[in-house]
Structure formats: structure tokens, C-alpha cells
């Protein structure tokens, strides 16, 4: 009995020793480092300058003020002056174009059309490009009236068969650039004087050619594209 009791005491002592060692290791490896970490950060927090929060708030307010100042400055920046699309030009400053050389180009980008324009609509000029009517009552680009331009339907004005209302027509002359938009497309008899109006109260480019676009020559109808002015120089006396 004494030996058995001694054996039990030894086992209990061993168990208690092992448990104590386990608890010591847990404290040393886990709890103690956590305690030191918490204590260190608590001490750091207590040592912070009380004015730090106020300094941060002031810095944030300054950033907001700077941002607002930049936005207000951006609004006050003056816009770049836009180019004058309708400058006034004295007629006296423009030389009458030579009949043998083109003085302008007619451009319709959607149709891939770029046609030299001559001052006059003689047969010789129409063989080389489009021709501008310069007879009695005629007007030039920028004079605020109707400008009549002719061209062959087999060459320069052939693309007009695919023209549509809304297409933009540009005319780049020796004294400025003009832009027009097609507002009507009509077919008239070749002798129909209502197809044009030289006394029109606004500037309009009237381009015409023989119609239909196919078939033998000698056609008696004319295909008109009427184009109202969008912008361009204004000629003054």
C-alpha cells in the first residue's frame, strides 16, 4: 500500500509539473508578447501631441480651400477667341479671277468630290472643271445673292447624283472659305427660268448639270442642288 501511494504521488507531481510548464510556455510565447504590445501602443498613444488632431484637421481644411481656389481660377480663365467665320472683305480688295485658271475648289467630302471652279461657264472652261455664271445679274461668293455654277454630269458633277439634303458643300476661294448645306434637289426643264432667282434675298449656291445622268447627250432637263450658306466672308462695297 505504501508503495502504491508513493507511485500515485509521483504521477500527480509529474502531472502538475507538466501543466505548470505548459502554462509558463503559453504565457511566455503568447500572452506576454501581447501584453507588451498593448502596453507599448497604449504608452505611444498617451505620448502623442494633443495638437496632432488639430494639425491634421487644419491641413485637411487647407487642402479643401486650395482645391476650391483652383476650381475658381479655372472658371476665370478666358476662352480663346474663336475665329471669325464671316469676316467682312472689301470688294475693292479682291481681284477679278482670270478666266483661264481655276480660282476656287468645290468640295463635298461625303461624296469624295473635289472640283476646280472657273470664273465663267464657257465651253472651254466647262471642259476643265465647273463654271460660274458671270453674266448679267450674276453674283459672287459673299455678296448675299444666288451664285449659279454648272458642270458636266459625266465628269466633275457626276457625284451629284448621290447628293442628299443636308450634305455640306465647301467652296474654297482665293479670298476665303465658304460653306453651304443642300436644302433642295430638283429637276427642271432646261428652259425653265423659275429654276433660278438672281434676286434671291439670301446667299445660295445653285449647282446644276444635265439630267438624267445616264444616256446619250442632248438632254433637255437640268438637275439642281440648291445650297444655303452656313458661313463665309461677306463682301462689302
Shape: elongated
Which class do the helix and strand fractions yield?
Answer: alpha/beta
Low-confidence stretches: none
Q: How many strands in all? A: 10
Strand order, biggest sheet?
Answer: 2-3-4-5-8-9-7-6
Average residue pLDDT: 85
Helix content: 25-40%
Number of separate helices: 3
Biggest sheet record? 8 strands, mixed, barrel
Plain-language structure description:
The protein has 237 residues and is an alpha/beta fold. 32% of the residues lie in helices and 27% in strands. The protein has helices at residues 2-47, 52-76, 123-126; strands at residues 88-90, 104-108, 113-118, 130-132, 146-150, 168-173, 176-189, 204-211, 221-231, 234-236. It starts with a helix and ends with a strand.
Write the layout of secondary structure elements.
Elements: H1 2-47, H2 52-76, E1 88-90, E2 104-108, E3 113-118, H3 123-126, E4 130-132, E5 146-150, E6 168-173, E7 176-189, E8 204-211, E9 221-231, E10 234-236
Parallel strand pairs: 1-10, 3-4, 5-8
Antiparallel strand pairs: 2-3, 2-6, 4-5, 6-7, 7-9, 8-9
Summarize the structure.
With 237 residues, the protein is α/β, with parallel strands linked by helices. 32% of the residues lie in helices and 27% in strands.
